[in-house]
Structure formats: structure tokens, C-alpha cells
Write a structure and sequence with these properties.
alpha+beta; 2 domains; 3-stranded antiparallel sheet; 2 helices; 30% strand
Length: 125
């Protein structure tokens, strides 16, 4: 049994309506505010994470990535490990982050420094 989900954003961009069709029952609708939608996305993310637990992490190279260009971010010590938490406010998923070990911090720092180097040709005059 396949269920189709249609998602519609209200004209004022304050609410969204999810309509479920294709099951044996009559179509059903759920109206969500932005906060409720954020909660749903968070819970779905947790469920997805649980389903993926124990499976290999997919390769990141070559993956399609939609970057968050304008965001707030923070770096702080992770309270549950000896690592450092790098977190940012993702426009689609809310606050997300990951923990880096000391070795990873060294590797990322080196990679960031390398990406910031600008090769300049000598000035001829």
C-alpha cells in the first residue's frame, strides 16, 4: 500500500499543510506551524538516525550537498566527550553539529588553512 504525501505552504508562509492520500482511508490533512514543522523534521531525523544505526556511513565525496550560506555557528567543548563541538543553524534542519576529536581538529585546521591560501603571481612592473 503506497501513501502519497502532498505538502503545501500557505500564501502567508506561516503554515504548511500535509495531505496524505492513497491509503484505504479517506485523505487526511495535518496543518503545521513553523515550530511544529521544525519538531516534525527533528523527530524524523532522529528516526532516520536510529534506522541507520550500525550501518556504514555513506561516502561524502561526490554527494549532493545543499550548503547553508547564511547561518549562525558556534565552536565549544562537547560536554559528553573530550572533543570539540562545531554547530550551526541550518535553515532546513535547525541547530545541527558534529564533534571533532583532537586529531580531526588538527586535520581540519590544516585543510582550512590550505583552502585559504591564495596563490599570487609575482607583480611585474
Amino acid at each position: 500500500m503506497a501513501i502519497d504525501i502532498n505538502i503545501k505552504l500557505s500564501e502567508d508562509r506561516q503554515n504548511t499543510t500535509l495531505t496524505f492520500t492513497g491509503g484505504e482511508d479517506a485523505p487526511s490533512k495535518i496543518d503545521l506551524t513553523q515550530a511544529e514543522l521544525e519538531d516534525l523534521i527533528r523527530v524524523l531525523g532522529i528516526l532516520h538516525w536510529s534506522m541507520a544505526e550500525g550501518k556504514a556511513i555513506p561516502e561524502i565525496k561526490g554527494a549532493k550537498i545543499k550548503p547553508a550560506y547564511q547561518t549562525n555557528w558556534a565552536i565549544q567543548k562537547d560536554k559528553d566527550s573530550a572533543g570539540t563541538l562545531l554547530a550551526f543553524q541550518h535553515p532546513g534542519y535547525g541547530a545541527v553539529g558534529f564533534v571533532l576529536s583532537e586529531q580531526q581538529i588538527k586535520e581540519y585546521t590544516k585543510a582550512l588553512q590550505k583552502s585559504m591560501r591564495v596563490k599570487r603571481s609575482p607583480i611585474k612592473g
